Amino acid sequence: MQKIGIVGTGYIASGIYQQMKPEKAFVVSKMLTRRTIDSSIGLPQSILTNSAEAMVEDCDLIVEASGDAIYATEVLLKAQQAGKPIITMNPEFQITTGSYFADKGYITDADGDQPGCLARLNQEVESLFFKPLAYLNIKGFLNLNPPENEMRYWAERQKLSLEQTISFTDGSKVQIEQALVANGLNADIAQDGMLAPKIENMADTGFLADAAKKLGQPISDYILCASAPPGVLIIAEHDLAYERRGNVALNKLLTSDEKYFRLLLPHHLIFLEVIKTIRDWQTGAPPLLNNSSSPRIGVCAIAKKPLNKGDTLERGLGSFETRGSTVRIKEHPDHVPICLLQNARLLNDIEPGQPVNFSDVELPQSKALDIYLQIKTKVCHMDSSPNTTDLFSHKSKVAERRLTDRRLTDRRLADKRLAEG
């Protein structure tokens, strides 16, 4: 029987533990928590620990489900150094520092969240020789700047944290998920923040495949469709299926423009499906999905309201101050990844709709910050010049002039901190 260590004791982590209880081939040996041992309701105290080292030592595989990119990085560095395989239910970690781990051992995001479900559906689609053109997350509703009273109401009703509820509602979560899909499945985004069309019928998605063909690469995006199930959708083409599209089974999958096929997985079962990824690891299957060692897409923080110089942002993701938006890292190398924006002191005033850049904040030292700076330098190849878009028109001329100097400083700082351990 193989031993599984779980990082986290919240909604996702506790669900993974409960789902695995009947499993005969695995046992949860340790669960790492930042809470006091006696405060994790419904979990046996005998398996709880506050020591990452103890959890890493007493397991064959680690499942990370904390939802915190900075904390996960610290823990998974210990796991990687110990040679332990890693499964994450944490797209936040993957799109922030996951690329550092991608070529250093087994690491994959899990089934259950929509990125993992898209990767699993993609395996089936490609095995049948369909050519995917658009990887789509399905959402029913978003509010980019939700009011606090509504978020507190829904957090209590759904038994989720306030931060989770905000990140789901303001679109940050889907931006993070689709950045991971783009990096992991070698796709692109059609524009900053993605196209995100609001549609009434899932058949009206052929134009997303058109956008991908114009770009010359599959795209990662999402749709807002109140009538659609909470699952994932791939828009694809297939010459033979198109030739025989008169068949009823094939005909019903056509987009409304009758050019492409809609391949739908109508659900994602969150923590219930993680066991599938664990079984894959046991049988020696390759990783389902990770952020790749050379990512192209990141998620920047966009101000929701005026932010004032001298203030401290406790957190970026799941806050009333900022939301996440996908960008190409190489085009916008100065953006601060939203998952790194914790306890950040503002150096400049920032207007609503403006991105938060490294020149705008002072971030606490962390391994995650050091690693991200190395990833950014690799992606930008040091000599890339940023392309500006309307979204980033707020950048100051001073920040632009100093961009090259900051890249060099970032790299030296990252190298020094990693060397110091």
Question: Would you kindly provide a written description of the structure presented here, covering whatever features stand out?
Answer:
With 421 residues, the protein is of the alpha/beta class. 36% of the residues lie in helices and 18% in strands. The protein has 15 helices and 15 strands. It has a six-stranded parallel beta sheet, sandwiched between helices. Helix 1 links the parallel strand 1 and strand 2 (26-32). Helix 4 packs across helix 13. The longest helix is centred in the last third of the chain and has 18 residues, at 403-420. The protein is globular and about 60 Å long. The two termini are 35 Å apart. The model is unreliable at 382-409 (pLDDT under 50).
Could you name the key traits of this structure?
421 residues, alpha/beta, six-stranded parallel sheet, four-stranded mixed sheet
Topology as H/E string?
Answer: EHEEHEHEHEHEHHHHEEHHEHEEEEEHHH
Overall pLDDT: 91
Classify the oligomer: single chain
The helix tally amounts to 15
Strand order of the largest sheet: 3-2-1-4-5-6
Q: Structural class of the helix and strand makeup?
A: alpha/beta
Q: Which runs of at least 5 residues are low in confidence (pLDDT < 50)?
A: 382-409
